[in-house]
Amino acid sequence: MKAAVLNRVGEPLVIEEIPRPSPKEGEVLVRVKACGVCHTDLHVIKGEVRFPTPAVLGHEISGIVESIGSGVEGLNEGDRVLCPFIMPCGDCFFCKRGDDDLCQKFFEFNRLQGKLYDGDTRIFRSDGDRLWMYSMAGLAEFAVVPGTAVFRLPDILPLEESCILGCAVFTAYGAIKNQSGLKEGESVAVVAVGGVGMNVVQLSRLMGAGRVIAIDVREDKLEMAKKVGATHTINSQKVEPVAEVRRITDGRGVDIAFEVLGRVETITQALDLVRDGGRVILVGIAPSGQAVPIETTRIVRREIRIIGSYGAKTRTDMPTILKLASSGSLDAARIVTRRYSLDQVNEAYDALGRGEIVGRAIVVMD
To answer: Residue 191 sits in a domain of what CATH number?
Structure first.
């Protein structure tokens, strides 16, 4: 099969022919149809997030079930499926509590070592050299995925575009539902409306927010944000965003600010956007070791809450996301604005790094 391999940090991905992997107990082999192009992969490519190499990236996929390992129930070969990036083990302390967004094995084995939960990868070169897996290593023609993270895709949903439900939508949904405490009519600011931020806009409005203020530096992204639910937009290169948000909110600031970029300046900006007693939800992945200076006295005296959010809860939230998409309440396909082949994968990440992709790009294996 073909796979896009990151051999060394800072180098382009290389399309290689490697053996097709096989699923083990509790796992599913998926013939990948599409994989989302996410900024988190770009962090790994640039060395801003540590991950072992050589590796295959790509962590939100849709495809067709090719084969099934023992112990997996409820799936059949040929099923159209979606696979979110958090792949819970199902038996660690956090998974047993229902907090599979904090799955201990996922972080320890996959995110730190590029392995699945028996302590090894599933993908190798022909000479036996190991290739490490970022989530399911979705930038390849086939991917092995733990059965806990494989969901039947309703027939009404498009197979390729729906891959972004597995991270861009999944991450946004988790931030709003599980961390923000969003109440009907509350005001929201979304700092940076890329693939995840655009879905924070869309889902915030869907889940009852009143004012939804999108903040970015690109007019094309702000225009798209209006189409998916933003009531107000702010170009922070043209208008001072904190002053404008306070003007929109009668001087108070928003109830909730979502930061979806992971930069010092946008995180501190988000802290300045919220009212007294407000919540700041940090969603963007920052370079490893990055720290943010915080005015502690204001946080304490004005009871500002700062909450981290990595993703949704795979086993309980993914079925709800699929229902929202199937009903038409959530339009994921609308967020997909560019399509690339696997051979064009470097073009995709270069465009992402330049900030040119409005919404989400996907790599289509066919």
So the answer is: 3.40.50.720
